[in-house]
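Customer escalation, tier 2.

The customer says the design service returned an amino acid string that "doesn't look like it belongs to this structure." They asked us to rerun it and document both sides in this ticket. The original structure tokens are below, unchanged.
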């Protein structure tokens, strides 16, 4: 039986990437990096999970001979950029720049009323999660989730399944008792590697991804009910 729903955050719960992009460019300008990511470039860079990892990947693209110095100077710059970027993102979310995607809150409310557990499995930072969900749900947002896997407690980024395996252990459920919700191919690969049937809700940044193996691909969760999720889940388990 279906017992828990596990949600990715960026791009799945909310269309956050435009704001993340603005935050990255703000950090680059403030710290004098001379970088600027436009939409096509950022869309490509989203194939690299994790903000710090994405910046380091780009730095190595534009400076192939980049070498870490003694004392970790390169990583120190990445950490500073990420700190500036995160502060900008937090303020933007607090100012109302990001809203949850259609159907997310109603589906969560319906799931809780029907006894399903909710959890989060993301590669983003705890600060970013809190900024988004505090604004969308309220100060007690954490009470809605049985477990949260994020960059602080599952550092291996998607498509590695670490964050999903951690969440499954934390909620004491098997993959067969859960459904995952993702928006990207890396997220789908991570969830599937953990044995999870996965519902995909693509966005403008991920619509071109390969979602082969997904349980369902739907535009958003606006017309998805718990009854439908139970039916999809049951059919998957039968086909297995």
């Amino acid at each position: 039986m279906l017992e828990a729903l596990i949600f990715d955050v960026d791009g799945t719960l909310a269309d956050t990437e435009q704001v993340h992009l603005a935050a990255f460019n703000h950090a680059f300008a403030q710290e004098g990096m001379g970088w600027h990511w436009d939409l096509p470039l950022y869309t490509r860079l989203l194939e690299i999970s994790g903000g710090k990892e994405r910046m380091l990947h780009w730095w190595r693209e534009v400076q192939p001979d980049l070498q870490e110095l003694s004392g970790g100077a390169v990583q120190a710059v990445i950490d500073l950029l990420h700190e500036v970027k995160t502060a900008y993102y937090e303020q933007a979310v607090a100012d109302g720049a990001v809203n949850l995607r259609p159907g997310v809150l109603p589906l969560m409310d319906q799931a809780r009323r029907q006894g399903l557990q909710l959890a989060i499995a993301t590669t983003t930072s705890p600060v970013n999660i809190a900024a988004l969900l505090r604004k969308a749900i309220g100060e007690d947002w954490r009470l809605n989730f049985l477990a949260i896997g994020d960059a602080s407690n599952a550092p291996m980024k998607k498509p590695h399944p670490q964050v999903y395996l951690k969440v499954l252990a934390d909620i004491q459920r098997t993959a067969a008792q859960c459904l995952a919700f993702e928006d990207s191919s890396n997220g789908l690969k991570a969830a599937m590697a953990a044995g999870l049937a996965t519902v995909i809700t693509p966005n403008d940044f991920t619509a071109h991804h390969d979602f082969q193996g997904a349980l369902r691909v739907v535009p958003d969760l606006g017309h998805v009910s718990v009854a439908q999720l139970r039916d999809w889940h049951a059919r998957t388990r039968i086909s297995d």
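Tier 2 assessment: The sequence is consistent with the input. The chain has nine helices and six strands. Strands lie at 4-7, 117-121, 147-149, 178-182, 197-200, 216-217. Sent an explanation to the customer and offered a walkthrough call.
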